[in-house]
Amino acid sequence: MLSVMFIKSETKELKPFQKLSIWDACEMTERLETHYQRTKKKAHADFFILDEEDQEVYAGTLSIGLGHSRHVVDHIKKKLSSLKMDDIQEARKRSFLEQLEKEVPDHLKTTDGSFSLEEEKENHMETTQTPVLSTRNRRLIYGGGILSLLILSATCFSTVATSQDRAETIQDLQKQVKLEQKITGTYERALLGDSEGALKQLSSIDEQSLTNEQKNVYMNLLVDQKKYKEAVKLQGEHPEVVESMISKKGDVNELKEFQQAFPSPNGAFDLAYHEQRWEDMTSQSGVDMTDKRYEMKAYGYLKLDKVKEAREEATHIQSQDLNQKIETYEKTKKEIEETKKQVDEENKKEKKDENKIKSLTDQQKKQEELLKNL
Predict the structure, then answer these.
(1) Cβ neighbours of residue 373 closer than 8 Å, sequence gap 6 or more
(2) Bridge partners for 4 per DSSP
(3) Poorest-confidence range of 45-54, 159-168, 239-248?
(4) Is the Cβ–Cβ distance between 218 and 210 less than 8 Å?
(5) 362/16 Cα distance (integer angstroms)
(6) Model pTM?
(7) Three-state DSSP class for residue 319
């Protein structure tokens, strides 16, 4: 399920950092659009589309009251339809839009771009809004949900608004736009597989000019090229940041190489988890425990058949999925014991029912397989 998070808004109705379902976001932005057009108001709101892991997969700026779009998903559809892409990018775009469309209320679904009361008026404001789209197919390069299509890299409306607030000059703004174009070109090179060329270009850009998101993309490119020292330096000499990113990707060989270069308890813990060395993982000391690591440790204890310890780890976090997994584990264990008991009782009878024994044995195997794959 996708969701929407508005991060900056000129309207009080869209609260910053409140996560909304696509359904609710469409309903709310459609009402706002109608109301703002009726009252001749105008506003803008920066937003993210998040995936099921709360990773950003699209970033944009929604214009409200200008008649450019009916609601937030209609805005995205119109922005992406105006961009020229190659066949692969088009396929990714269609997949993304289809996923969005499924979650839009039926009465708000749009089939064309007919909803526009002021299409030409203030069009310059709309065209400066530049979206960012991603795909999981390039996670080895961009990793951790970092936007991987990166069709365009910045929301210039935000830049303009900030520039006006700080009374910056037009010349300063032009320089910033040129920098964004350079960064965009770099991402395009990476998307086409030219990681070396992208890294060379990024290294020529002042790090202070890069946003946190752009630094993360840069870091992923460095890690992809096994340039761990440069990646750590980019993160202010904090290897734990790089290690955490690699761990999320789940690349065991990469994590092992990084742990050799920058050994740490965190790395030892994460590596043991990915290599399914449950005893080593659960006994590792000095680990900076996060919600994810508490979940990993609880899972490790389940694999060791230590339900009590798993429950203790689960108390550190609010995870319905983890608690359900522990409940399922206990229930399945009891079912296996009961099935074993029935098999033993059947085997002790003088006249054994071979069909029943076979049925119970098959049932036990399925239960054990379920427990193994939990």
Answers:
(1) none
(2) 20, 49
(3) 159-168
(4) yes
(5) 54
(6) 0.51
(7) coil
